[in-house]
Amino acid sequence: MASPFWSPSRKSVARIIYVGRNRIGNWVACEERGVFGGLFVTRAQALKYALFENGGDSDSIIEVTREIELYIGTDQ
User: Fold this and answer.
1) Does this model's pTM top 0.85?
2) CB under 8 Å to 39, separation ≥6 — which residues?
3) Which domain holds residue 57?
4) Source organism's superkingdom (predicted)?
């Protein structure tokens, strides 16, 4: 049985997701265009979220060493 969280369209769109720490030390995972993202306590949580959101494609996750902040884009 298919997972209720899985969508065939998720896998078809390659999304780059950046994972790193923000200025206060939280872990951030954010899609490059700001479509989605989240704040996490641990690196493992951020990576798990990133893998889920991009259909398990670890090649499209980039861990950054500089500080990153979570900004979610809006269409206005």
Assistant:
1) no
2) 22, 26, 27, 28, 70
3) 13-63
4) Bacteria
pLDDT, block means (10 residues), the chain with 76 residues: 49 80 96 91 96 92 93 63
Strands 61-63, 17-21: parallel, antiparallel or unpaired by DSSP?
parallel
Instruction: Report yes or no: 60 and 54 within 8 Å, Cβ to Cβ.
Output: yes
Q: How far apart are the first and last CA of the chain?
A: 39
Per the structure, the count of domains in the chain is 1
With contact defined as beta carbons under 8 Å apart, do 53 and 33 qualify? no
| CA-closest candidate to residue 20, choices 1, 48, 2, 47 | 47
